[in-house]
Fold:
Amino acid sequence: MKRICFSLIVTGLLFISTAAFSQVTKVPQIAKDNFAKQYPKAENVDWDNDVVHVTVQFDQAGERLTAEYSNKGIWKSTQKDIAYEKLPTAVVDGFKKSKYADREVTDTKMIYYPADVIQYRVKVEKNDIEKKYVWFDENGRLIRESITL
Structure:
């Protein structure tokens, strides 16, 4: 009898958690509509909604991009991979003059924001524990930093 009750409770919890999960992951139509207007030539589109924001990965012009929208469909940013060697000269110079110049660069991104703002995010590692993201503007000025895992 205890096994039957336990099985029913577990089954019920699974149904409830599945229903709750499916509600959380629904992508707002307004975000899809705004994305379609902004990126009409996007291919291989893959949506994800993590409650805080909606992300969409897609291909365009031979590149893989990731765009982020609010749950109200407002575009927040789009990022793409860029090789360190292809960063603008001003950004490379800014990085070389920063206190992070001695660290290993493990990833670089070009990030587009509203109002035609472009920033470059460089992931640097001193060792397996000390890892940071550092952002530079188009002029190579360090504008912010954050710890990453």
Notes: The domain at 2-147 is CATH 3.10.450.360 (Nuclear Transport Factor 2; Chain: A,). The chain has one domain: 2-147. The first helix runs from residue 2 to 24. The first strand starts at residue 43 and ends at 49.
